[in-house]
Amino acid sequence: MRAVLDTQIEFLKVVGPQRAALLQKELGLFTYRDLLQHYPFRYEDKSTFYTIRQLNEGMPNVQVKGYLRLFEMVGEGSKKRLVGHFKDETGEMELVWFKGIQWVLKKYQPGIEYIAFGKPNRFGTKVSMAHPELDVNSSKSKPNALEPVYPLTEKLKAKYIDSKTILSWQREALIQCYPSFEDFLPQDIRAQFGLIERKEAFRHIHFPQSAEWLQKAKFRLKFEELFLIQLKLLTQKLIRLEKFKGFVCSDTQLLHTFYNEHLPFELTNAQKRVIKEAYTDMKSGKQMNRLIQGDVGSGKTMVAFICILLAIGNGSQAALMAPTEILADQHLKGLLPLAEALGISIALLTGSTKTKERRKIHEGLVSGELKLIIGTHALLEDTVQFKQLGLAVIDEQHRFGVAQRAQLWKKNEQIPPHILVMTATPIPRTLAMTIYGDLEISVIDELPAGRKPIQTVHRYESSRLKVFQFLREEIEKGRQVYIVYPLIEESEKMDLKDLMDGYESISRAFPSVPLSIVHGKMKAEDKEFEMRRFVKGETKIMVATTVIEVGINVPNASIMLIENAERFGLSQLHQLRGRVGRGAEQSYCILMSSYKLSKDSRVRIETMVSTNDGFQVANTDMQLRGPGDLMGTQQSGIIDLRMADLVQDGKILEIARQAAQHVLDEDPHLTEARYLPLQNILKAMRGNQINWSRVS
Ligand code: ADP
Ligand code: MG
Questions:
Q1: Which segments of 11-74 does DSSP mark as H helices, in order?
Q2: Which of the ligands is closest to the CA of residue 300?
Q3: Best of 263, 553, 558 for a ligand 1 pocket test (most atoms within 8 Å of beta carbon)
Q4: What pTM was computed for the model?
Q5: SS3 of 284, please?
Q6: Helix axes 211-243, 650-666, angle to 10 degrees
Q7: What per-residue confidence (pLDDT) applies to 346?
Q8: For the chain, is the Cβ count within 10 Å smaller at the N or the C terminus?
């Protein structure tokens, strides 16, 4: 069967070499399989007929049975057009063509009964349809009730290749492949999950016998797409677990000392649960690969520190990597007293660490004397070697790539370190299961007690005086304020000017209040200096761009004012908001915007105002942007799906993952005869990505 599906499209007689070349170039279709997997993106419902009198402006595409009376050329120059007078028992309408006139004249004859299909326009009593499809109304050519519409390109259309043409090719390809079409999903799995056979799915996706069959076909094809990805991810995980030992961290003495004597607060239940989950991994003898998702302020750092203690308490070292120097520094500051109380040696390694200090750190890590290293990307350098790295924590994982995660693995030759990645950008579960499908996932879904929910409001420019007055009052009460301006690559200069203008007007509005300013164009040390002043409380207002987005912790800051909020993405807004609400005081997030808002900006702002829940924010974000954009180009390839949609098909994904798990539980290496076809497909898949052309 491989042979038939693998046949080049040019051998499909109805297509021929010339058009095959075009299909290749325009749509990337090479084989029968490619063609069959060129799925319709929607279907025209042709189950109902309308009469001309019923037609109205604003209707979707509809079909009408009638006689083509005559053709007529009307208009001059660019207004020149072909009009076909089309009549049924209720009236008459004009079919209009501006292009392809010769072709239309050749193809359709007046005096014949046709079914016209198109979008009706009504002008007074006059009804027309531009560029309708016409079908001869004979019982033989009775159209499908649901007619597929295929993705096409302008070049193809120019060659008169339309959805009907593609459909006729699909018919031929299907006829040839159908008899030998195999199914890689065994019968019992199909039965268990209510899946139709693969060949039936292909048949009904192109030629749906009914809406119900179409549904079944879609379900099957979505399922298999998601299933294969999950099978791949779970297999990777299995292989990793089999292959990689993990440092056994079963001694909890150090952890208990800390817990009983030094823990500065009671852990939340969610923190406790996640620590237990990590502990189970870390003592298992297998390598841990765990993602901790927790909303901003949910206390991920403490969870990480306790895992670090577990690693160190069992004789190994630990590393904590953050995306920025400021953040790494803050981690150091926060953890230093705790580490000192426990007699744990700790150091900071960043790009700006002086050579002498750096050398000392390198030595300490190699000798094993230095137990905990906190740093930035600098930790990834090859010169950084460990005696025994037991655990690597990556904070704000979304700022790093998958490759960097892998780099940390290599820090230990024998046993790779346990890996804990943390992210405060909650992503919808469906997406997490795909992007991080090879990781275990823990969720901290609870904020420390006593936090007052942040109040978020939306204000227009006209309320600026009031807003500033409010800031003044809060500052008088001793609080600190962030004022954030957008800074987007393309318009950097403009934005910088906005920021500086903003800074000017803020210094005028708050003449006696000490201000800090931080933006991406400043030298690192100047940035540091300004940040520090704010952290220490010397300055009361921090005017900044989104450089402060990640991680910064100033519990005394209680107001986040975001200028031009309409220009920020939803997850960015949420991250920024997470900078406040960290202390005991009531905190506020004020979103300033202009009056003119696009529909999406409005939804973003409304979402921010209505919820503090990061997961809800993430779901809306995914609906607005689609999963690809959400993860950035770097990772979007993974979720380049043909049929399934991570926004809509979360349920199917859950089932598909279950099914994949079920298969692997039964036969981890897919060596049973019935799973061999699956094994072959997995081999053909590269990375997380499926090379669909090889999927049979
Ligand atoms: P994030 O998850 O955003 O990284 P952090 O780890 O920075 O959050 O924690 C935010 C703040 O909450 C810190 O000041 C931290 O000390 C504090 N914190 C963490 N866990 C708790 C807790 N269980 N009870 C009270 N405060 C906590
Ligand atoms: Mg953090």
A1: 16-27, 32-36
A2: 1
A3: 553
A4: 0.71
A5: coil
A6: 50
A7: 97
A8: N
User: Which tokens hold the place of 285?
Assistant: 């003898």
Task: Examine domains 60-143 and 455-611 and report if their fold is the same.
Answer: no
Ligand 1 pocket test target in 298, 321, 548 with most atoms within 8 Å of CB:
298
What is the structure's pLDDT at 400?
67
Q: What are the φ and ψ backbone dihedral angles of 136, each rounded to 5 degrees?
A: -65, 135
Q: Name the burial class of residue 264, with classes exposed (0-12), middle (13-18) and buried (19+) by CB atoms within 10 angstroms of its CB.
A: exposed
Q: Does residue 301's CB lie within 6 angstroms of at least one atom of ligand 1?
A: yes
Q: Which amino acid is at 343?
A: G
Tell me, what amino acid is at 471? L
- What fold, for 455-611? Rossmann fold (3.40.50)
What distance separates the 2 farthest-apart alpha carbons in the chain?
A: 97
Residue 582 C-beta-side C-alpha neighbours within 13 Å: 23
CB of 50 within 8 A of CB of 88?
Answer: no
Q: Which residues of the chain have pLDDT under 70?
A: 1-2, 139-144, 398-402, 426, 488-492, 547-552, 627-640, 686-696
For residue 550 and ligand 1, the question of a CB distance below 6 A is answered with no
Q: Closest by alpha carbon to 689, among 233, 40, 368?
A: 233
Output phi, psi for 135, to 5 deg.
-125, 140
Beta strands in 491-583 (DSSP E): 515-518, 541-544, 557-562
Q: How many Å apart are CA 130 and CA 136, to the nearest integer?
A: 18
pLDDT the model gives residue 638: 53
650 touches ligand 1 (CB under 6 Å)? no
Query: Domain residues of the chain, as ranges?
Result: 60-143, 253-284+299-423, 455-611
Helix then strand then coil, % of the chain, to nearest 5? 50, 20, 35
| 65 touches 202 (CB < 8 A) | no
Rounded CA separation 334/347 (Å)? 12
Smallest CA-to-CA distance from 683 within 258, 239, 209 is with 239
The predicted pLDDT at position 490 comes to 53
Run of H or E residues at 191: helix 187-193
Domain 253-284+299-423, architecture per CATH: 3-Layer(aba) Sandwich (3.40)
Q: What fold characterizes domain 60-143?
A: OB fold (Dihydrolipoamide Acetyltransferase, E2P) (2.40.50)
pLDDT digits (tens, 9 = 90+) for 91-117: 999 999 998 899 899 999 999 999 999
- Distance, in Å, from the CA atom of 198 to the CA atom of 213, rounded to the nearest integer, reads 13
pLDDT of residue 489: 55
Q: Give nearest CA residue, ligand 1 atom 13.
A: 299
Cα torsion angle, 567, 570, 571, 576, sign: positive
CA 451 – ligand 2 centroid, Å: 16
pLDDT at 684: 79
Whole-angstrom Cα distance, residue 200 to residue 178? 9
